[in-house]
Design a protein that fits this description.
Layout (H helix, E strand, L loop, with lengths): L19 H17 L12 H11 L1 H13 L9 H15 L3 H13 L3 E4 L2 E4 L1 H4 L5 H13 L1 H4 L8 H21 L3 E2 H21 L11 H5 L15 H14 L3 E3 L7 E4 L1 H12 L16 H8 L4 H13 L3 H12 L4 H14 L4 H6 L7 H11 L13 H18 L2 H6 L9 H11 L4 H11 L3 H16 L3
Antiparallel strand pairs: 1-2, 3-5, 4-5
Helix pairs in contact: 1-20, 2-7, 3-5, 9-10, 9-12, 9-13, 14-17, 15-17, 16-17, 17-19, 17-20, 20-22, 20-23, 22-24, 23-24
């Protein structure tokens, strides 16, 4: 799998193939790379991880309460994308949790974006982070970082502002955050406005300099015009920026990333300890992940797979064999499939790797999972290889929709356990030949982690035009748009 070179057009002319061993290797490298590189030290004065996690739990307290209510009450109408479905449930939540309708809507949005709940059709289910919320500080911090990345989705933009201006500000906010992080203290809002003005000017200049990419059939790149200079005159960069900067700072403050002094004169913005740590994490391009336990053979299937995630395939297979030898095959296969049905996409892929070591005794139970949509792509690949297909050709048994589902699932594994660079490179494993087609089919496939994957990809990708297209797709999925 190769990365797109800086001077390479955003729309690729060759057919990109989704190859299972490469996709799983991407997810595995998410952990392997993290384990072998030195861990940078956080800035001096950064609170311990336990304190950061406590602050994150406080920010997401209402979201957790709502998610736990959904975990108990989930059923035919647990929570719905539709306004009518949500209104009927809001009354029940308000009664049970003593929250206002506004608090319920905000908490519900936060719960979805932080991975505390996941939507499957019209039914909401608890996400894997909710199960680990009280005992795993890393899961809590990852959930908060997912919300931090999606701040613009949970804080409505000012009315009457052009979407392009909003997108430019969202794209420029990382530079504002970097200044706040480097300043290590309060920064006057006028100074942030100057930086924002400068960065927006740069973005507009870059956009005008980039010629439109096109594929071999002449179709413009990136959603038919993203990254292409418009013939219409652009308004001055400074027009409306003060209001948009206020919106961005208030949005970041609402998720606990910074504090903003009230009033309009001589205001200062200051990163919170949690926000300072998150920006440092982004700048260092490291990811927080749960530590794997020692002693894999005696652990449960889930803990064993977490322990093997940092191993290369050969040693991992040895661990699988030793773990399987200590159990009856029927119970081991059942336990592995239970893990595969969970919310952690990395463990889902690794569970099927362990089932490959089992071989024939697992065939009947693996074949039965073909009827389960989240496991179907993995099961079909397992069966194809079991029946003699070469690993590089096995993906031909998948439909385009199943390949897209697997691409999103693998991206979720990388987003949860890997580094942003790996998530960017994961684009090259998509079956679609260009970015607009990928985004269109990702939106349609209905994976419960779609919004979080797209938000993480937009935050990680260095190309502004592509990041903008991905961010737009995330917003459309989040709001139920086309």
């Amino acid at each position: 799998m190769t990365s797109r070179k800086p001077d390479e057009p955003l729309v690729r002319n060759s057919r990109l193939r989704l190859v299972r061993p490469q996709a799983l290797a991407t997810a595995r490298r998410a952990v392997t790379t993290r384990r072998t590189r030195p861990v940078p030290r956080p800035p001096e004065g950064t609170p311990p991880r336990a304190e950061l996690a406590r602050q994150a739990r406080q920010v997401l307290a209402d979201a957790v309460r709502i998610a736990r209510w959904v975990a108990v009450e989930r059923g035919a109408d647990a929570m719905s994308r539709t306004d009518s479905g949500t209104v009927s449930v809001e009354e029940r939540v308000a009664t049970a949790l003593d929250l206002t309708p506004g608090q319920i809507r905000v908490g519900w949005d936060r719960a979805r974006l932080a991975g505390l709940v996941e939507l499957h059709g019209d039914t909401a289910r608890p996400g894997w982070r909710l199960h680990a919320w009280d005992r795993d500080d890393s899961a809590v911090l990852r959930g908060w970082v997912a919300l931090f990345d999606a701040w613009s989705l949970v804080h409505p933009a000012p009315e009457g502002v052009a979407p392009s201006a909003v997108a430019e500000v969202v794209e420029a906010v990382p530079q504002v955050l970097s200044l706040l992080q480097l300043s290590q203290g309060p920064v006057p809002v006028p100074a942030l406005l100057d930086l924002l003005d400068q960065r927006v000017e740069e973005l507009r200049g870059e956009r005008c300099e980039v010629p439109p990419g096109s594929d071999e059939e002449g179709e413009p790149a990136l959603d038919r015009g993203i990254g292409r200079a418009s013939g219409a005159a652009e308004p001055p960069a400074g027009d409306g920026l003060p209001a948009l900067l206020d919106w961005a700072l208030e949005g970041l403050a609402s998720v606990g990333a910074l504090t903003l002094e009230p009033g309009t004169a001589d205001r200062h913005a200051t990163l919170t300890p949690l926000g300072n740590w998150a920006v440092w994490v982004k700048l260092e391009q490291i990811c927080v992940a749960a530590q794997s336990p020692a002693g894999n053979i005696e652990q449960s299937a889930g803990d064993m797979l977490r322990g093997c995630a940092r191993l290369t395939p050969g040693p991992a297979r040895d661990e699988y064999r030793a773990w399987l030898a200590a159990r009856t095959l029927s119970s081991a296969v059942s336990e592995l499939l239970t893990v595969a049905r969970g919310e952690d996409a990395l463990l889902r892929g690794l569970a099927f790797e362990a089932l490959r070591v089992v071989g024939a005794p697992a065939e009947a139970e693996v074949r039965a999972t073909v009827a389960e949509p989240p496991l179907r792509p993995y099961a079909l690949l397992w069966l194809a290889e079991y029946e003699g297909a070469d690993a590089d050709d096995a993906q031909e048994v998948l439909t385009r929709e199943e390949s897209t589902w697997l691409w999103v699932d693998t991206a979720a594994a990388v987003a949860d356990h890997g580094e942003s660079e790996l998530l960017v490179r994961h684009l090259d494993s998509a079956v679609q030949g260009n970015v607009p087609a990928l985004l269109e089919e990702v939106r349609a496939v209905g994976h419960p982690r779609t919004v979080q994957v797209l938000v993480a990809l937009a935050a990680a990708h260095p190309d502004p035009a592509l990041a903008k297209a991905v961010r737009r797709a995330a917003f459309q999925v989040h709001t139920g748009g086309a």
